[in-house]
Every structure is written in structure tokens, then in C-alpha cells.
Amino acid sequence: MFENMLPNIGKVLSRYGYLFAQGLGFTLLLSLLSVLGGTVFGSLLALLRRSRLFLPRFLATAYVEVVRGTPLLLQLYFFYFMLPEMLPMLALSKFASIAIALLFNSAGYVCEIVRAGIAAVDIGQTEAARSLGLSGAQCMRRVVLPQAVRNILPALCNEFVAVIKETSLASTFFVGDLMTQYNVVRGNMFLVFEPLIVVGVVYFIITFSLSKAVAKLERRLQAGD
After folding, report:
1. Contact criterion met (CB below 8 Å) for 182 and 16
2. Please, what is the Cα angle at 37 between 34 and 42, to 5 degrees?
């Protein structure tokens, strides 16, 4: 078995390397859409959670708790089956439904990242800005958020790395990601371990490289303080 593994891996790559490259593209696209959309929506949620009004604060908190308190796979199933039923006029594809599900999941975690980044800014900065006549919104936009970015940016990059790995669950719905391509190759070549090793190596290279880049970014930001 093991003596044939390397030759079989070579066969897998020579015959289906393009499928793995295609799967990597779908995986990175899913991750990018999830984090970018999650950043926008999560930032809005973070501001709502800091609101003095009870209703928006309650709704934002409830959303975050539901997202963080339920399995991602359950959320994927919910969006995959429910979105086309709820919005038939949009004719959402499988890929779009899964991308929206990952976006809404990511938003719940980004919300806490942004909220923690804002909370890490010295309260004295806000008090000083208010004493100069700035409104609450102006303080947030001109004083707090620019400083909070230093705390938020590395955590957002780590969220991107985490989402890349979480997209493997999307293979349940055959949306073209890396694990979907593994299932295709496994079925075509009747090999289990060899294509799995290829996919594992690709995931490791991508996430390891990004993790090192995030660590370097954190060191640079710390050096700039």
C-alpha cells in the first residue's frame, strides 16, 4: 500500500491537478467573500452592540449568540435550503447560498473582534475628543476607529485563515471547493488517501503561509506603537 502511495499521488496530480487548482480558487473566493462581507456586517453589529438603545443592542447580541452557539454545518443547511425558498425571485445558486451562510457566520465572530478592538482603545481618548466638542459619531469615526484598526486587523486576518479551513464543510453541498474536488477525484480514481494527502498539503501550505504573514503583520504593528 505505502510503496504505491507516491506514484499514485503523482498520477492524481498529473490527471486532476487542474481540479485541485480550481477547488483552491473556489475555496479562496468563498473565504474572501465571507470575511469581506462579514467585516462590513460585523462592524455594524459591533456598533449596534455598543448602542444605548435597548432594541438594537438586544437584536445584535441575540444574533451573535445564535451564530456562535450553533454549529456552522447547521447554519449551512439552513441557508442552503431556506434561502431559495424565502427568496425565489433571486434564483440563488448553491454557491451563493453557501457564501451568504459563511458571510453571516463570519459576521458574528467579526462583531466580537471589532467590539474588542474598540474597547481596547483608551477611554481617555474619547473623553479628550468629547471635551474638544466632537460628537459621539465623530469621536468614533475620527479617534476611536483609526486606533482600533491596529487591534482589529491581525484578528481579521486570523479569521480569514479560520474561514479557509471552515469552507471544507461546504463540500457537503458540492460547491466546487477543495474538498468537493477531493470527492470527485476519489470517485474517479477509487483512491482515498492519495487525493486526501494532496488536499491536506494544499490547505497546510495556504494556512501556514497566511499565518506567518499575520504574525509578521502583528510584529510590525507592535513595533509601530
Report:
1. no
2. 105
> Model pTM?
0.87
The residue extents of the domains of the chain are: 2-223
Nearest by Cα to 46 from 187, 174, 155, 194: 155
| Nearest in space to 182 (alpha carbons), one of 3, 24, 14, 6 | 24
Encode burial over 156-173: b for 16+ CB neighbours within 10 A, e otherwise: bbbbbbebbebbbbbbeb
- Report residue 219 as a C-alpha cell: 510584529
* Closest C-alpha among 104, 113, 112, 103 to residue 61: 112
CATH superfamily of 2-223: MetI-like (1.10.3720.10)
- Tens-digit pLDDT profile for residues 32-45: 999 999 999 999 99
